[in-house]
Design a protein that fits this description.
The structure is a single chain. This protein is α/β, with parallel strands linked by helices. Helix content is about 45%, strand content about 15%. The protein contains 31 helices and 33 strands. Strands 6-5-18-20 form a four-stranded antiparallel sheet. Strand 22 and strand 23 form a beta hairpin. The two termini are about 60 Å apart. It binds one RNA strand through strand 11, strand 15, helix 7, strand 17 and helix 12.
Length: about 950
RNA sequence: GGGUGAUUAGCUCAGUGGUAGAGCGCUUCGUUCACAUCGAAGAUGUCGGAGGUUCAAAUCCUUCAUCACCCACCA
């Protein structure tokens, strides 16, 4: 049979993958030798809403390499796949579909809605699995897991333990006091109307406004306001009856609890302890708030005085907690001004009493509705406009935004421009907006997040962070690259409570019930809760858990915990976690904390953190930029092997990966190269034969076996150290540079013209070498190697289960190594020499090189056929030093002298040789300088000194030859 | 503001103390005999700047410059 000239990836990949699956090749423990150590990897579960992007392709390629490598080594291997239910993302997909039908989530009951989500999950949730298969991922799909399996309402085929595990963990942690509910300031997403964690928001700077307002002092009191410049010179001195406040969020003024100034700020020192009036709301009910000191205000920024609105700002929240200032909540969960209909006047009066020293609880304060009637129910931004308009109308605005150039209006005078104050206009103001939960989920809600005082559930992370830190510090768990360990430490050392409740429907509902008095009953089932509560009527907490709470249990949950399963015993703790740096906090740190908290063991021994895949210009791939490379398109175009090899070869630790199609095309060519090497072997009957490693006689065959052994050692070392790019590059240069460029060429005279014994041993050697290439490449390029494996022989096992070799340095024949290096150098030299000459067509002229040593002549004799073929010479007579004047050219029936000047450009050749000589002399000076330095000879390692001496000798010999050649050349001119 | 990393050939990047590398691109040449998704030859570098440690520095230290990312953000 004749092989095609190229590998038909499109045709073969699906067929091969199917064959692997049919053979159960990926099942846990497949190809394991009895008693072998185990190797397990948990896939970072992609969102069910996800489709494969380059990040997944990269991440899963690296995992697949390790898994295939260990499986071939006979380890008891498991690659556990699964998907994450991805709370917000999934709910959003289904809500969007409903919106297309003109419906909303709230048009349905919770049960009805969840049924729709499950239906969607069943229909579309498997997309990414098929995409991972196209990549060649060798997961044990029979064990596919889902972070919501077994949840109430799940269809029958979604049974499983995950929900039970999650609920059980919650209850255990609740009982241990690791989980609590409390009223805290959290990030609120007004679009999805749910709390989100600090990690899920992104700080962005957008142009905005800074308003400066006057807060009048109580009772019309006045003081002398003095402002100095850096040298202490007074730049402004005036009587004032107000304190100036700068704010970007005027709508929160009604919730102010105090005005804070720095204790060092002399301008306001006389005011500390006094009261000032919030200049908004009905005049008869304006509240007076205290002026306090706190370290937080920066005297150099704004006016130096800050309004403290504890319920709507994180910094203010801290100040308020420190100073015991009430936090008045102004907005409801849609980020609209609160609209509960309570009388404003009473609330304002109560708030005033609190401000003046009355005792209060946070619930009391929170229950006050400090929003005046005309602002109630307004969107926060509408309310902002109205507040600004009112304050301005009262003449209490020191600056307005009327001069915003973007509004296209003529500049207007601010109502009361302040001498020496900041120029009115645009300031950069930090806002907060929602960011995608996980790459590549690009559809962020993009709304401005509102800090909101709400009741939420928290994990008291301070109690469980210890072991997670200690494990990495002690080396029990290693994080690579090291800089990511630093990031991990920094975050965990400063960890905040983890808000785990979300006001969504899709997720694990919190297993807590309340009676009418608000008492909590936490239990795994409603019946248990009811048993605790006696005959009280219970209502379940409607919130669900943060998706990361359940994915934090991924290592044990996928292995069947809380049951004591065989899988847990075999595969837990897992071996390696391979993940992107973007989820170190979200996921890696949480898994560490949770696994230690629940089962008291590490979740994994090694964490390998890889970088981001970017476009060829280094930009993040994003839909909006239109620079997304779809891995499936690339697989269609170049084949999965080429895509995988590209990602692997570029996976230098800790650096972003800039992907270009040129690079992929280059590695696609590599698969073709491999294919054709195999094709050559097949044409020459140099294909698989069972048995041991060949023990050939010919130098070249001995040599290639040693080269193969070097490669095997290098590949294993690279993979052991997660140096994926080293493994790929080693194999690339071995297969292309060593096997194809040299060994295959060397083999041709032996296979075609050699004696029978040499031919047979060369066939056997080549067959073995090609097999080794396939084995060693298989983890990176599984498809083309499996295909060739099947083509080149009748095998007992598929390549996916072939035995990984263990041979090493002992296969290296030092003599063969030396001799082949010499042969290669000679051929290079002859080829180079030929390129410098203008050989007249049809003539065969000697090639002008530097002279050969006696040892060289002997080595030449032993490898004559190969050298003659590759260097295209007829014999050593074709290789000589520049002769005097003429070269002798043999023609039919005699010979004649051809002037050297006719076939070489004497001047150019001279220049070239001189340049080479100059380089050589520079090197010689360096080498001699070192050896002449007694301190080098004393302090440098002996092998380095010996190597330097050896080098010097070689260079000196070269120099001699080069000078001789130059001399001859000079004789020509 | 704090942290981390980067700066090496025209481009994209490897290279953690011992003679500066790869891929792509470029120039010239070459298709009967595995592969034109190929082969051969060739050009291209004060390894960001400046100091220091060392027998020896792209590599370690200090410092400066520029860029990137992460965290926290001044109301």
């Amino acid at each position: 049979m004749t092989m095609d000239k190229t590998f038909n990836a499109a045709e073969a990949e699906a067929r091969i993958y199917e064959a692997w699956e049919e053979a159960g090749a990926f099942e846990a423990g497949a190809n394991a030798t009895p008693g072998a150590e185990s190797f397990s990897i948990m896939i970072p579960p992609p969102n069910v809403t996800g489709s494969l992007h380059m990040g997944h392709a990269f991440n899963n390629t690296l995992q697949d390499i390790l898994v295939r490598w260990h499986r071939m080594r006979g380890h008891d291997t498991l690659w556990q796949p699964g998907q994450d239910h991805a709370g917000i993302a999934t709910q959003m997909v289904v809500e969007r579909q409903l919106a297309e039908e003109g419906k909303r989530r709230t048009d349905f009951t919770r049960e009805e809605f969840l049924k729709k989500v499950w239906a969607w999950k069943t229909r579309s949730g498997g997309t990414i699995i098929n995409q991972l298969k196209r990549l060649g991922a060798s997961c044990d799909w029979s064990r596919n897991a889902f972070t919501m399996s077994g949840a109430p309402g799940a269809p029958a085929h979604e049974d499983g333990n995950f929900h039970d595990a999650v609920i059980r963990v919650f209850v255990e942690m609740y009982d241990k006091g690791l989980i609590y509910r409390g009223k805290r300031l959290v990030n609120w997403d007004p679009h999805f109307e749910t709390a989100i964690s600090d990690l899920e928001v992104e700080n962005v700077e957008v142009p905005g406004y800074m308003w400066h307002f006057k807060y009048p002092l109580a009772g019309g009191e006045t003081y002398t306001y003095v402002e100095r410049d850096a040298e202490g010179t007074v730049v402004l001195e005036e009587e004032r009856d107000f304190i100036s406040i700068a704010t970007t969020r005027p709508e929160t003024m009604l919730g102010d609890g105090a005005v804070a100034v720095s204790p060092e700020d002399e301008r306001y020192a006389p005011l500390v302890g006094k009261l000032c009036e919030i200049p908004v709301g009905p005049k008869e009910h304006r509240r007076l708030i205290p002026i306090i000191t706190d370290e937080y205000p920066d005297p150099g920024f704004g006016s130096g005085a800050v309004k403290i609105t504890g319920a709507h700002d994180f910094n203010d929240y801290e100040v308020a907690k420190r100073s015991g200032i009430p936090m008045y909540r102004l907005m409801d969960t849609r980020a609209c001004m609160r609209n509960d209909g309570a009388p404003y006047a009473e609330a304002a009066a109560r708030a005033q009493a609190i401000a003046e020293g009355a005792d209060f609880t946070i619930e009391e304060v929170d229950s006050l509705n400090l929003v005046p009637d005309h602002l109630r129910g307004l969107d926060r931004l509408e309310a902002r406009e109205k507040v600004v308009a009112e304050v301005t109308a009262d003449g209490l605005a020191m600056m307005t935004r009327a001069d915003d150039p973007r509004l296209g209006k003529a500049a207007q005078q601010p109502s009361a421009p302040e001498e020496g104050g900041e120029a009115p206009g645009l300031d950069l103001v930090p806002l907060v907006e929602a960011k995608p939960l996980m790459q590549p989920f690009g559809d962020r809600s993009k709304v401005v997040i509102e800090p909101m005082l709400t009741d939420q559930w928290f994990v008291d992370t301070s109690q469980i962070v210890g072991p997670a830190l200690e494990a990495v510090r002690s080396g029990e768990v290693t994080i690579l690259p090291e800089q990511d360990a630093k990031v991990y430490f920094h975050w965990l050392e400063n960890i905040e409570p983890w808000c785990i409740s979300r006001q969504l429907w899709w997720g694990h509902q919190i297993p807590v019930w309340y009676d009418d008095e608000g008492n909590q009953f936490c239990a795994t089932t409603e019946a248990d809760a009811q048993a605790q509560a006696g005959n009280k009527t219970l209502t379940r907490d409607p919130d669900v858990l943060d998706t990361w709470f359940s994915s934090g249990l991924w290592p044990i949950g996928t292995l069947g915990w809380p049951e004591d399963t065989e899988e847990l015993r075999r595969y837990f703790p897992t071996s390696v976690l391979i993940t992107g740096f973007d989820i170190i906090f979200f996921w890696v740190a949480r898994m560490m904390m949770m696994q230690y908290a629940i089962v008291g063991q590490k979740p994994f021994s090694h964490v390998y953190v890889h970088a981001l895949v970017r476009d060829e210009k280094g930009k993040k791939m994003s839909k909006s930029l239109g620079n997304v490379l779809d891995p499936l398109d690339l697989i269609d175009e170049y084949g999965a092997d080429a895509v995988r090899f590209t990602l692997t070869a570029m996976a230098a630790m800790g650096r972003d990966l800039k992907l270009s199609k040129d690079r992929i095309a280059g590695y696609r060519n590599f698969t073709t190269k491999l294919w054709n090497a195999a094709r050559f072997a097949e044409m020459n009957e140099a294909t698989h034969r069972p048995g041991a490693i060949p023990a050939p006689q010919a130098t070249v065959n001995k040599w290639i076996i040693g080269e193969t052994a070097k490669t095997r050692v290098a590949v294993d070392t690279a993979l052991e150290n997660f140096r994926f790019n080293d493994a790929a590059n080693t194999l690339y240069s071995f297969v292309w540079g060593t096997v194809c460029d040299w060994y295959v060429e060397f083999s041709k005279p032996l296979l075609m013209d050699g004696d029978a014994a040499t031919k047979i041993e060369t066939q056997a050697t080549m067959a073995w070498v090609i097999d080794q290439c396939l084995i060693l490449l298989h983890p990176i390029m599984p498809f083309v190697t499996e295909e060739l494996w099947g083509t080149l022989g009748d095998r007992q096992k598929m390549l996916v289960h072939a035995d990984w070799p263990g041979y090493g340095e002992d296969l290296i024949d030092a003599d063969a190594d030396r001799e082949m290096n010499w042969v290669i150098a000679l051929i290079d030299q002859i080829r180079s020499a030929r390129a410098q000459m203008h050989v007249p067509a049809g003539l065969h002229v000697p090639l002008l090189v530097t002279d050969l040593s006696a040892a060289g002549r002997a080595a030449y004799a032993r490898n004559e056929a190969m050298i003659q073929r590759l260097a295209r010479i007829r014999g050593l007579s074709d290789v000589r030093l520049f002769p005097k004047g003429c070269v002798t050219v043999a023609v039919e029936g005699g010979s004649f002298g051809l002037p050297l000047a006719d076939i070489i450009d004497v001047d150019a050749e001279k220049a070239r040789l001189e340049k080479t000589l100059a380089k050589l002399e520079k090197e010689l000076r360096g080498l001699r300088g070192r050896l002449d330095n007694p301190r080098f000879v004393e302090s440098a390692p002996a092998d380095v000194v010996a190597e330097t001496r050896e080098n010097l000798a070689l260079r000196e010999e070269e120099e001699t030859k080069l000078r001789a050649a130059l001399q001859r050349l000079a004789g020509l001119a």
